[in-house]
Design a protein that fits this description.
single chain; flat; 174 residues; mainly alpha; 6 helices; 0% strand; 65% helix
Length: 174
């Protein structure tokens, strides 16, 4: 393709100052079977070995910690969760049992809220319904120009988001 030969030609550069290498060095370089790709592969293997050793060391450390935790009585294992120096009365230092109790409490409130609204699942809030109808009406009237309805869409999003936040606040905040 074109004027350039398909095989690369060998270029020889001559420096202005004479450089002399020993005959042994030149022979060693010429007879070396090591190339850039083999050096790269060797470096990759070395890195892989280092990563494997570190991973093995971390797994051994994890096994040691797991054995230490499993050998402790249940009451002592809760102390591992608490920050150092925290007392049992500290509300931030929750044990596994008190944390599970709080989760159960929130779950019960959620179930009550969902149960109370089970009859009204199909019933929308009036404000949300009106905003949705405005969006539908605008989109039907501007079927070739949906961007004309951006104000209605934004109002619907704000109404729906505020109602959603209120509902989440009612469920979680009790």
């Amino acid at each position: 393709m074109g004027n350039n030969p398909s095989k690369p030609t060998e270029h020889v550069f001559y420096g202005e100052t004479p450089v002399q290498f020993s005959h042994n060095l030149v022979n060693a370089l010429e007879t070396s079977t090591e190339s850039d790709s083999t050096r790269s592969k060797l470096a990759d293997l070395h890195v892989q070995q280092l990563v494997a050793e570190e991973l093995k060391r971390l797994q051994q450390r994890e096994d040691q910690v797991l054995q230490q935790v499993s050998s402790l009585p249940p009451d002592d294992s809760a102390s591992l969760i608490r920050p150092a120096g925290a007392e049992a009365e500290d509300p931030l230092a929750l044990s596994r049992h008190s944390l599970q109790a709080k989760i159960d409490q929130i779950r019960e409130r959620f179930q009550k809220q969902v149960g109370a609204e089970a009859g009204s699942v199909g019933v929308e809030d009036e404000e949300v319904r009106r905003a949705r109808e405005d969006v539908v009406r605008c989109l039907r009237g501007n079927d070739r120009r949906p961007l004309e309805c951006s104000e209605e869409v934004q109002r619907f999003r704000k109404v729906a988001e505020s109602k959603g936040r209120k509902w989440v606040g009612d469920v979680v905040g009790r």
